[in-house]
Amino acid sequence: MGTHDRSQPALHWLFGDQLGPHFLRPNSDIVMIESRGVFRRRRFHRAKAHLMLSAMRHRAAELGDRVRYVQADTYRDGLAQAVGDAKVTVHHPTSHAALGFVRGLRQVEVLPPRGFLVQPEAFSRWAESVRGGRLRMEDFYRRVRREHDLLMDGDRPAGGRWNMDAENREPPPKDAAALPVPPPYRPREDAIDEQVRADLDRWERSGDVAFVGRDGPRRFPAGRAEARRALRAFVTRRLPTFGRWEDAMLAGDWTMSHSMLSASLNLGLLDPAECVEAAEAAYRAGDAPLNSVEGYVRQVAGWREYMWNLYWYLGPGYRDSNALGHRAPVPGWFADLDADAVQARCLSTTLAQVRDRGWVHHIPRLMVLGNHALQRGWDPAAVTDWFHRCFVDAYDWVMLTNVIGMSQYADGGRVTTKPYASGGAYINTMSDLCGPCAYRPAERTGERACPYTAGYWEFVHRHRERLAHNHRTARAVKQLERLGDLDDVLRNARRRDPDAAP
């Protein structure tokens, strides 16, 4: 794309999720564009909009005179205001749309991606080498561990085992309202946060944009220093108990022992290498058990890298996947995060947490929110868009494969080997949510029938032919055939959705 005129300072464009030092170029002036149009196109969670703008403006303040910060309606307008027709560089953006946009600009030179451990080209070579074309996250994860020497003792995994999931599935402690762990790092707001909130208020009052959910106070880092403090706080105070309760839920403890670092990673404030290296250092120093450290490394160096690379490997057409033929719209109460419209305590509690904070950890996302959408047959593209808009750590690359592939099984098994549908028994085992609920997890008919239990069997019945030919779900179909009250279950499930508003 040509060379830069060395008589002028080189210009480098930072997108709003490229905010860490690893996205800078030496001796380059920086261009940052705040696009109002982004918020017009989607009804984002208010806390997400606040975090995105706060993080960008904090970064601009850090860069000082080095940055050309432009507020514009579109990125194209902003680029013209910032640099005219001058040449600029930018690191590979994180969405198909953004990549197509920058590649279509003659003045822009696209550099390789940053902020990930594995480059898409390397992933493609690995994927094409897999016999039978069956990609497994476990195989990829072990490859990443070896290539980056993560939790390795020579050529063997630390502790002699690659996977410690079996030790990371404990239910929460009985009769505990919260885990016995210190709270996560909490940032302090400043004048930049106050100005962002005033701007959002003004835009919303004018009818220019609309949001969902509640905003404030900010719970996630908006700058590099805050993100590093959050990482240190997690590793020293919460990582030791992360593993055992990784899959547990408590109504009164929305953070559990989770790192709360996904937003910082996905804004580019942290690099995945520094996160997994800090976790491994804690294990080597005897400050955190192996199961917790392996569980965290698996999330960051395994699953996150796998999702990022599958996003590019599977291509833009993947978003149209709908193997189960689900086309029901996302209902208004769910889209509006109306937790008061539902009686099922697990769903109401989780929706309230999303409404209030724009974040819940991976089990409520998968087994409460995603499970409900899957059972009801909601359009997977609409579900993906909802997750994208309503979570502070969500971007197109994050949610496309996680929701289309993992949560909604809309790709028919390219990402995961079975649908993640379950009845109320799973939620009851892994949480304290069912005890005070109006419904009973063991009941599938009648007024106290658990919506998840009845919905599960209706889902299995609806897709029984497909599920019967999957070795991981064939047993459920056989169990379905032995239900003496199946007709009542189906009538119950179809007659009313107990969670929906009238």
TrEMBL record:
**Which Pfam family, any one, appears in the UniProt record?**
DPRP
Q: Which GO terms describe its molecular function?
A: lyase activity
**What InterPro entries would the database entry show?**
Crypto/Photolyase_FAD-like_sf, PhrB-like, Rossmann-like_a/b/a_fold, UV-DNA_repair_photolyase
Record's compositionally biased regions (Basic and acidic residues): 155-173
Q: Is Nucleotidyltransferase among this UniProt entry's keywords?
A: no
Record key words, sorted: Lyase
Segment Disordered: which positions?
A: 155-186
Protein name per its UniProtKB record: Cryptochrome/photolyase family protein
